[in-house]
Write a structure and sequence with these properties.
Helices cover 60% and strands 0% of the residues. It has 92 residues and is mostly helical.
Amino acid sequence: MAEEFDYLNSNLSAPFNEQLKVRSDESFVKEVSERARMLYNLRYSPKDAVARIQKNLEWEFDDTWAVRPPDVFKKVKEIVDGIYKRMEGKLD
């Protein structure tokens, strides 16, 4: 009979797990925002930028999202639209 490894059993508290989720969501928003700015500067349309970012994220997290993409994935269009409105008329 195989022994269980201690590191496979997480004893993280619920508040700490929630804090990790918030940090993860913030990182996701930052990453998508940076990609949106880059694609804006490359003169992608908002629609094409959303599609490109979503496809890149699906590819990068292929195994993780095999069952169900995270909730923040649904925010890509909202984030891209916000960046495009802010950047309108400007190129970095």
